Amino acid sequence: MFDGASNFIEKVDGAFLFTIIVSVFFLVLITVLMLVFVFKYNRKRHPKAVNVHSNVWLEVTWTVIPTILVLIMFWYGWIGYAEMRAIPENSMQVEVTAQMWKWTFKYENGLQTDTLYVPVNKPVKLKMTSRDVNHAFYIPAFRIKKDVYPARDRFAWFQADKIGSYDIACAEYCGLNHSYMYSKIHVLSEQDFNGWLQKK
Length: 200
What we know:
The protein has 3 helices and 10 strands; from the N terminus they run ααββββββββββα. It is elongated. The chain has 2 domains: about 10-85, Helix Hairpins (Orthogonal Bundle), CATH 1.10.287.90; about 90-200, Sandwich (Immunoglobulin-like), CATH 2.60.40.420. The chain is an alpha+beta fold and about 200 residues long. About 35% of the residues lie in helices and about 30% in strands. The two termini are about 35 Å apart. The strands form 2 sheets. Strands 3-2-1-5-8 form a 5-stranded mixed sheet, with no helix packed on it. A 5-stranded mixed sheet has the order 4-10-9-6-7.
């Protein structure tokens, strides 16, 4: 966690970590309480059952606390989602076309490739569509995923923070060779990217 290569890492991983911590805490708490109650109220110690009457404060507590925790999780998720929707105006646009079973990337100068090349520390806007069925554009290291549909433009953006090569996958079952629908994103320095773009 927190070792990815885009501007979304901190918020996505933070929300995930918070959710995991809360879940593990309640898993341990509920398991311990179950064991205590099984031992304390077993049949040997209490052969005759006794009715338990309602406790208003207990009912309110175990309703309010989970509600607050879920709202906090929602807030963390919403902050990250809002950032992913706010595409910067100075973004470099790349058109992404999905089809069974490959990705095609088209740059503003008309160049088309089957591998995505982007400059580091520059916002990149992806305009995505599909030629056939539903796909999902997914870069695990960048924590971005966007469903891609036929005859409909979908948008996503990111800013790569580290030079290197990262996997691109289709995250939605799209047919027989879905598992082979992989590509790469190469993050280059701005100078190397401009040189690559001019050379191509």
